[in-house]
UniProtKB/TrEMBL annotation:
Residues 5-81 form the 2Fe-2S ferredoxin-type domain. It comes from the Bacteria. The keyword Oxidoreductase applies. InterPro entries: 2Fe-2S-bd, 2Fe-2S-bd_dom_sf, 2Fe-2S_ferredoxin-like_sf, 2Fe-2S_ferredoxin-type, 2Fe2S_fd_BS, Aldehyde_Oxdr_Iron-Sulfur, Beta-grasp_dom_sf. This is Xanthine dehydrogenase. Pathway: Alkaloid degradation; nicotine degradation. Keywords: 2Fe-2S, Iron, Iron-sulfur, Metal-binding, Oxidoreductase. PANTHER family: OXIDOREDUCTASE WITH IRON-SULFUR SUBUNIT, OXIDOREDUCTASE, IRON-SULPHUR BINDING SUBUNIT-RELATED-RELATED. GO terms for molecular function: 2 iron, 2 sulfur cluster binding; metal ion binding; oxidoreductase activity, acting on the aldehyde or oxo group of donors. Pfam families: Fer2, Fer2_2.
Amino acid sequence: MGTSTPVTVEINGDRRTFTLDNRTTLLDLLREHAGLTGTKKGCDHGQCGACTVLVNGRRENACLRLAVSADGERITTVEGLAHDGRLHPLQRAFVDLDAFQCGYCTPGQLCSAVGAIDEAARGWPSAVTAPGVPDGPVALTDTEVRERMSGNLCRCGAYPHIVDAVQEVGAR
């Protein structure tokens, strides 16, 4: 049996402490210890994006991060996107634009999209951002959205509607 360590994280606004085996991933902390099953375990190798959460506002694959390394961090899961009983604008856009089919990848897609929109608004370039783009927000073209969301796979093929939803909310 591995060594256990206390880990304190803020999950969706609630500060919580867990005593965890040092080998526990952030994904398993969320699902098995915090009871937040919205974040999905897909490939468990960081290749599908189903486990994407926001750590201090940045996108991360929770299956690749050890929970002990998240001590003191602020985690937002899909359950934390809605506020006061109202869906996050991306959640609403996903529903309105049919941006999901089976829904398994949707929590990771939503968290990734929140991060992607924030990155573009801050002017952070992606691999397809044109060189020499002036400081300021990056336009969320189809190519930009597809590149920024490329780490999140959808086996149903809902990509066109996911792109539409990200662009709609990103334009606000």
